[in-house]
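2024-03-11 09:14:02 DEBUG pipeline.ingest accepted 1 chain
2024-03-11 09:14:02 DEBUG pipeline.ingest length=103
2024-03-11 09:14:03 DEBUG pipeline.predict start
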Amino acid sequence: MAANVWGLDVTVLELFLGRLSLLPGVQKASAEELKQAICDREPPSVPEDAEASAELCGFVAACLHKEPARRATVAQLLSHPLVARRDVEASRRALREIIVDTL
């Protein structure tokens, strides 16, 4: 499960940034480049100059610890303010609008 939390958060961070978070400046990374970035570099984070909420920064920080035992659990993430305070129905409507607009 800890690997799933890592993967989820890398995805969340990349959606926020609009680019690869593990390899800034790289458009398309090979599996080997990604492996090296994960194993040898510090975990990605929300850049200090990004206009991100405290909740997003906290969510990212909770998920991207190198040591799996230090990562947030799924239960902890579900109660995190970034997730727990969201209006699920409003989020579904917004997602539908995005999907319809791209078709």
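2024-03-11 09:14:41 DEBUG pipeline.report The mean pLDDT is 89.
2024-03-11 09:14:41 DEBUG pipeline.predict end
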